[in-house]
Amino acid sequence: xxxxxxxxxxxxxxxxxxxxxxxxxxxxxxxxxxxxxxxxxxxxxxxxxxxxxxxxxxxxxxxxxxxxxxxxxxxxxxxxxxxxxxxxxxxxxxxxxxxxxxxxxxxxxxxxxxxxxxxxxxxxxxxxxxxxxxxxxxxxxxxxxxxxxxxxxxxxxxxxxxxxxxxxxxxxxxxxxxxxxxxxxxxxxxxxxxxxxxxxxxxxxxxxxxxxxxxxxxxxxxxxxxxxxxxxxxxxxxxxxxxxxxxxxxxxxxxxxxxxxxxxxxxxxxxxxxxxxxxxxxxxxxxxxxxxxxxxxxxxxxxxxxxxxxxxxxxxxxxxxxxxxxxxxxxxxxxxxxxxxxxxxxxxxxxxxxxxxxxxxxxxxxxxxxxxxxxxxxxxxxxxxxxxxxxxxxxxxxxxxxxxxxxxxxxxxxxxxxxxxxxxxxxxxxxxxxxxxxxxxxxxxxxxxxxxxxxxxxxxxxxxxxxxxxxxxxxxxxxxxxxxxxxxxxxxxxx
Length: 495
Known about the structure:
Elements: E1 4-13, E2 16-26, E3 31-35, H1 42-50, E4 57-62, E5 65-66, H2 72-78, E6 80-82, H3 95-110, H4 116-126, H5 142-155, E7 160-164, H6 172-187, E8 191-195, H7 199-205, E9 208-213, E10 216-221, H8 223-228, H9 230-237, H10 247-250, E11 265-274, E12 277-287, E13 292-296, H11 303-310, E14 318-323, E15 326-327, H12 333-338, E16 341-344, H13 356-361, H14 370-380, H15 382-385, H16 397-409, E17 415-419, H17 427-442, E18 446-450, H18 454-458, E19 463-468, E20 471-476, H19 478-491
Parallel strand pairs: 3-8, 3-9, 6-7, 7-8, 13-18, 13-19, 16-17, 17-18
Antiparallel strand pairs: 1-2, 1-4, 4-5, 9-10, 11-12, 11-14, 14-15, 19-20
């Protein structure tokens, strides 16, 4: 019997099923992974396991005992420990005090007289935090603060430890140390279950991997089995079916000889991050006019951070961003928008309580006429003309994505930035969306795309790049990049 066993777990948000009849186990002495593309339902599944998310169906058992009806704190007392995707530490306390808090709370409810100070000291040493033990957590780099959270969870002496993105913010050396710590913990009998974007860590550390896609478990096995599974490859890379193969040819682009010698966008030596957490390191690439440039990479590679810097949402610490040869590094969002930069963010960014038409009218600040905006939009996206009076929040995911793109195009952009268009959408809808992208590029708009659903966007791309751990590792033709994507996504490496 598995130490932790979840069966038939279902979670719905409104009409959308985020987790659908999912089964999952974690064994004593093993490290298990839960992976999947963006929006697959991984964190929702974790929340269901520890009681933070109400389930529609299914049950959770810990060492054979049904715990589905227990509150989160009761599950924790039974032996279910947890860290979070977003760092949850006591920032005004020291490292020692954070870990000690976990040990003290455990002693109080368990009636244990163990020396909490000794427990905390041992964990601090095991996590290589001794040199900062008496420093406040808010003064630590993100990677080390992440280890503090792991230490506090371990201080509660869990039987099962759930880790949500534990390597986020860790450098390579810290990630290697984390892997060694997790292996020692598993060897001592702990069951470890982690959601993780770092495929090098997952494939190199996990004994068993569950793969979640659109809320369903599509594969279970050891790393080699999962990497070779066609369903997993399609979940991360897309289908690449014949329906999309002729897209680029049917929408010819600007001839390379006719393109301006000055790139529409040029990024040189870009560095950026959040606080003390460095994300981007020496990122450089360019996008020509009328070109579709695609930036690939697994979760946490730095793709969205790159887009945020280009769009003026995040400052660069070093490097330059040029638009048509003009240095726009550090320009504010409104100035970049007036210069022709428009971004469709991850999650679409439509106004759910406004109608389709009202969402489109939001672009009239640029001086465009409302009727003209609607005319152009409905010629590009005919399905929206039948929905003009419908609230955007009631549209399907594909319709919302079309609306977000239509609103962006209403500003007549020179550079269109698209972040994860395919997230949460069915493959046929994704192909239809990228058919529209090809049409837009054929009209001369430069397009920078961040995408994980690789095959469909490769069919419309002119140039592609792979980003890993904040750096561009490879730039080349779509066909060249396609050969390396599986390794990048499912093992965290490129050739």
